[in-house]
Design a protein that fits this description.
Blueprint (H helix, E strand, L loop, with lengths): L9 E9 L2 E10 L2 H10 L4 E6 L2 H4 L7 H9 L5 H19 L1 H6 L4
Antiparallel strand pairs: 1-2, 1-3
Length: 109
């Protein structure tokens, strides 16, 4: 599929033909012919269509902040103090069940 240079950027879409019509498979915004060729080869055997991008599709989302997203990644999982507390609790339980704490500290429990 060849697209006129003046028409970029465009959206290319891949559809799978079937008895009941075409089933949507993928969509990608492309800015040059090389991206169109890559999309076409990736979805070879599918019906490829191109359409002009609407004005609202070109607008960026001003509410999206990459700094917020990066800090959220660091907050996943257990904090270090919780892991340390878990290790201490496990060691105390193992120490009591084996009798090591009672012998070491001469406790009669």
């Amino acid at each position: 599929m060849v697209i006129n240079e003046k028409e970029f950027p465009v959206v290319v879409q891949a559809y799978q033909p079937g008895r009941d019509g075409e089933l949507f498979v993928a969509e990608q915004m492309v800015r040059n012919q090389a991206e169109v060729d890559a999309f076409s080869s990736r979805y070879a055997g599918y019906v490829i269509e191109a359409r002009v991008i609407k004005e609202n599709e070109l607008a960026t989302n001003s509410n999206y902040d990459t700094r917020t997203r990066r800090t959220a990644v660091h907050r996943r999982g257990l904090p270090a103090w919780a892991i340390l507390l878990l290790i201490v609790v496990v060691l105390v339980v193992v120490g009591f069940t084996t009798g090591w704490i009672q012998k070491t500290f001469q406790l009669n429990l």
